[in-house]
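Hi V.,

You were right to ask for the full record rather than a summary. Here it is.
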Amino acid sequence: MQCDGSEHKGDRPIIKRGHPPRPGRKMGRGTGMRELLRTNDPVLLSWLVALLADADIEAVVLDRHTSLLEGSIGAIMQRLMVLEEDEVDARRVLREAGHAVP
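Predicted structure:
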């Protein structure tokens, strides 16, 4: 038996992927997402995602690939999303960093 942190069921290893959810966090079906902002500025999105990650808030950018497909005309905005239970904390973090979101 190897001591690599994986569990085994019979002769097959059970591979655990990703990070465990924070205590008290509901994951899976029924977890809603909230939009924080829409923008075409990739630098701003990258900074905000990093800022939220530093506060232990997972953020997702939606429509990134669609925006890239349409070229550089900026017709499709990208959306910064967080879990609805993190929305209040995420808005506070962005506000404290000097980026006001509605």
